[in-house]
Amino acid sequence: MTTRTLYRNARIFTADGPDLAEALVVDGERLAHVGSEAAALEVLSGSDFAEVDLGGAFVMPGFVDAHTHLVMMGETMQKVALRDAGTLAEIQLRLKEAVAADPGAPRILGSGWLFSAIPGGTPTAEMIDAVVPDRPVYLDANDLHSVWVNKAALAEMGIDKDTPNPLGGIIERDPETGEATGLLHETAMHQYAWPTLASLTSDAERDAQLATAFEHYLSTGVTSTIDMALGEDELAAMLRALEAGGGTLPLRINAHWLVAPSEDHEKNLAQVARAAALSRSVNTPWLRVVGIKIIADGVIDGCTAAMKEPYSDGSNADLIWAPEYLNPVVAAADAEGLQVAIHAIGDLASEVALDAFEHANAVNGPRDRRHRIEHMETVTPESIERLARLGIVASMQPVHADPAVQENWRAMLGDERVERAYPWTEFTDAGAVLALGSDAPTAPHPPLPNMYIATTRKSALEPSLPANLPKYALDLASALSHATRDAAFSCRREHELGLLAPGMLADFVVLDTDPFAAGVDSLLSSSVVLTVVGGDVKFRK
Question: Of 148, 399, 427, 444, which residue is most buried, by most CB within 10 angstroms?
């Protein structure tokens, strides 16, 4: 049976240097040749092979989404979409339409609302109850660090005036009555909303959510992902998909186990031990548990990110993980050979994360660790230099810098800190590895618009808006490499993923437009015509 395929007549960006190749040879699941057509025919001489004429199309490595949440992404696609609802009235209208479309729905779920759409930036249960008072409503904020609910949802979760704030979380309350107002931040969402909804979700529904995420990723050119909030339910869905696929998946998953904050050292270390055990038992070419995920602070939009200086209203946020609990967890995970990914959006949180990594280095000795800090939307120059020196990967998401979602973000800081927002090129100038992803579903998952934002600092949602600090824009080749080669490096798979070269896995995508020839604006209109994973065509337009 023919296992070799020649893909010819193409413009191939390899992510391994500036020159474009014109042909590649797939042999089984790997690449046997990337280069000229003449050399490809020499490689194939004397053997049977199939031939695909790409008609001059643009080929590149499959995107490796360096930060995503797969099952949650599929789930969000089934919710009422609110990201482009610019006013409270529009949000309320969409909730009414959702009820009209499914009058028997036991609850209404929505996602993507922006603080800037809410009067005073303060959503309340009454605002939802004005249109949907008869069933629970749960609305995820755009950043997925807050959930806005109505009174029926508060009752369903068992939250009342006596419900305590969990460690690292806030239940917003009326200052006079103490009653919950309908907004849960950070671990309050994790410990009340998420378990409630999880208990109402079947395995079949999770399987469908994961399948939806696979489908959408393949159609947009993503062939590998790094999942950043793996729990028991998500892992079970992935294992079922792996079994159903006969030991394969539609795309590759590298996952970080989510470690919940606690002031009990033994409980914290038990979570690390669970991740370490999974890293040994779940270790296939298609699904791997590679590390742990720690959420050290919140987000700027909700004023829950931990900052060195207060927000514009004079408030500030505590760290979710105090150093006395964070450092032992990082050191224990490091000792097990796990990669540690720390969510740190505020400049104080990134300093504390770097302190924890230095602590692990001191305790466990030097080696190639490949730890990561996620997001770093505000960060000091000193922290960038220290991150590069320590060899920590900067995992960042251009979609979060889209000018269309920046109004409230900038207002919450309100000072010179907004002039150093999302400083991608400062990281690369310092010599750090920059891995780009989407953080779906907190932001749109398609990588081509993400690359447009990376190269222009303009909006993929509203392209007419002014660029957001264009001094930090990346050139096209660098942006594509950060989203392929460097993203693969960030999960220790650079030896087989992220670039097109002989011996690498045959994971690549074919676009209908060459962005180098047509210009970066074409990234907004380009589409994927073919996605190949492990030599197999997984999507064809």
Answer: 148
